[in-house]
C-alpha cells in the first residue's frame, strides 16, 4: 500500500539522521521490527546498546540524556520516570519482535531489560503512570 510505503520511507529518513534522541531510536527500532526491516532494526538496536545504562544488578535500561537517576534510599527505591520505562519497553519489544525466533544472545539481553522493567513495578503490579 502506498500509504504504508510512504510512512516507512518517512521513518527511514528519520532513522538516517545523525543525531536521534534515544527515545526516537527506541520507537524506530520497534517500528522497523514490526515492518520486518531487519537491517534498520539491527542498526538501531546496535546504536541503542551504546546508550544503555547497565546497573550493578545486571539489569539494563535507557534514560533520557541529561536525566540523572535519583539515588535509592535505604527504605525507598526510586522509580524511574514513565518515559524511561516506556522507552525501555520499546527496546525490549524491538528485541523480541522479529520475523524469526530471537537468537539466544538476544533473549539473554532481553531478560536483562525485563529485569529492570519489572523492578519499576509498584506494589500493586502497575507502574507510576499509565503511559
TrEMBL record:
Pfam families: TED_complement. Residues 56-70 have a biased composition (Basic and acidic residues). Gene3D superfamilies: 1.50.10.20. It comes from the Eukaryota. Residues 2-131 form the Alpha-macroglobulin-like TED domain. One of its GO terms (cellular component) is extracellular space. Residues 56-76 are annotated as: Disordered. This is PZP protein. It comes from Irena cyanogastra (Philippine fairy-bluebird). The lineage of its organism: Eukaryota, Metazoa, Chordata, Craniata, Vertebrata.
Amino acid at each position: 500500500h502506498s500509504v504504508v510505503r510512504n510512512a516507512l520511507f518517512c521513518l527511514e529518513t528519520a532513522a538516517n539522521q545523525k543525531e536521534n534522541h534515544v527515545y526516537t531510536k527506541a520507537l524506530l527500532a520497534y517500528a522497523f521490527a514490526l515492518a520486518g526491516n531487519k537491517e534498520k532494526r539491527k542498526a538501531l538496536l546496535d546504536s541503542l546498546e551504546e546508550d544503555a545504562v547497565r546497573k550493578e544488578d545486571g539489569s539494563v535500561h535507557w534514560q533520557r540524556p541529561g536525566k540523572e537517576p535519583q539515588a535509592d534510599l535505604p527504605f525507598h527505591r526510586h522509580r524511574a520516570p514513565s518515559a524511561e520505562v516506556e522507552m525501555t519497553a520499546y527496546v525490549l519489544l524491538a528485541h523480541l519482535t522479529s520475523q524469526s525466533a530471537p537468537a539466544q544472545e538476544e533473549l539473554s539481553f532481553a531478560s536483562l531489560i525485563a529485569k529492570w522493567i519489572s523492578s519499576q513495578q509498584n506494589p500493586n503490579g502497575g507502574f507510576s503512570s499509565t503511559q
